[in-house]
Design brief:
There is one protein chain. By secondary structure, the protein is mainly α. Helices cover 46% and strands 4% of the residues. It contains two helices and two strands, in the order H-E-E-H. Strands 1-2 form a two-stranded antiparallel ribbon. The chain starts with a helix and ends with a helix.
Length: 123
């Protein structure tokens, strides 16, 4: 009987361990739930519309001389103050024409000076 009572005792003990383990796995637990607190606050007003924005004042700029645009320091629609340079056009062709005209004038001054010398000596 000792063997049978030991077997029964071991079986009861095994059942007790299994019952405790099952309770640990299957017992209801408190679940973590994300919460947040509501507070009264002013709602920002956002207006979303479709359309085009037009300026109150628009000015078309047309230079007297054409050329290659080398500087444009402002974006289209940007604000500018009176007297600010809006764009810079390459002036190399005009500078070359001025230098050529000055050289031509200097070339004509030499014969004129000789003619004045000759004319004044004869009188």
């Amino acid at each position: 009987m000792k063997t049978i009572s030991k077997q029964i005792l071991l079986a009861v003990l095994a059942l007790a361990v299994l019952a405790v383990a099952a309770y640990g796995f299957l017992a209801p637990r408190d679940k973590e739930v994300a919460t947040f607190v509501m507070q009264a606050a002013p709602a920002p007003r956002l207006l979303a519309v479709n359309g085009r924005i037009r300026p109150r004042l628009q000015v078309d700029i047309r230079p007297a001389l054409g050329g290659e645009l080398v500087a444009l320091p402002f974006d289209v629609g940007g604000r500018v103050a009176a007297g600010q340079v809006l764009a810079r056009i390459d002036d190399a062709p005009e500078t070359a024409a001025i230098a050529e005209a000055e050289a031509s004038v200097q070339a004509q001054e030499a014969p004129l000076a000789q003619a004045r010398k000759w004319c004044c000596k004869r009188i």
